[in-house]
Target: ribonuclease H
Amino acid sequence: YREGQRELHCVFVDLEKAYDRVPREELWYCMRKSEVTEKYVRAVQDMYEGCKTVVRCAVGVTEEFKVEVGLHQGSALSPFLFAMVMDRLTDEVRQESPWTMMFADDIVICSESREQVEVELERWRFALERRGMKVSRSKTEYMGLHVVLRFTQLSQPLAAVVKEKPRIFQKNGLQWIMAGV
Model:
């Protein structure tokens, strides 16, 4: 994009409590859609059936309560199950790299215009939230990568003037901001 002098707009999507929000029915559905053998689906169901937990805090320990949603924290199997669920839940909205990139619960959506990346974000939000996941609006971030035609040294920080988060970096011992056209 830099060589072609085209802009690239990215949204870094944050899922709220991603592992804790995976609906169990979605997990079973996604395992079957991924052609996991039924005996393994049942084995995982057995692991999750009747799960209970307690909360320890400064004043003591709560009574046991059922955990009916989410993946087990600390389980070696949970990252694999989460990746399988995300793969299936995002089939309809996911595009080829570089337009969509996913790793665990980190999602990056890219487009050539801010408007289009906002449309894509809404498609993703709808697809995920209708299946039990939740996009954190406060932690999801936008970054526009603009064509750099020249570098200009700053005499003072522009953070108070720039509406979007400025891309400030160090070069040759000086502080610089990326300015595009």
